[in-house]
Amino acid sequence: MLVFLRVFDFRRLVALLQGFVRASSVGTLYREESALSSRVSFFLLLNFIIMSSLFAWQTFGVVFTNYPAPTDFLWIALAIVGAYMIKIISTRLLGFVFEVREAAQEYVYNIVLFNKTVGLFLFPITLCLAYAHQIPQNWLVGVGIVSWSIVLLYRLLRLSWIGLSVRGVSLFYIILYLCTLEILPFVVIVKVLVRTN
Known about the structure:
With about 200 residues, the protein is mainly alpha-helical.
């Protein structure tokens, strides 16, 4: 998928990555496309789902010293997709209720954009976890978790900035939203997966 995008849609791929780095580029990208309208967006989202699920599956294998069953990979993928679907639907619903639909849609676009970037970051790490046995797996898992955490923290800060720039949205609502829809789902998923192993 990534080779296909590199060959046929390189300019669009670079534009999306610039949106991750520069907040000013996101507005242009948001106006030009829907989060799922282009081939680049679709493949990068698919890459995020596969890579994040595979990384989580490999991480549990390293932490618990034996890899979970292959069917657990599908359950992890479904949990990640479900968590993000709930987050996106809730955000759009809150945007409708508080009459900030445009800001809510841009917020959703940013969430999807950051997920695409996480998928690209996790690709070499999951590849090394599977095949580069000379590198200690604990190091690779640590690098993956730290990279994902940094991207999530950066996303939280940038999305908080978007929320604060919207008139009528207070800091209390932003903190409440971040706790319930950004942090809580990951805590619940990790707790469920740890209990099943």
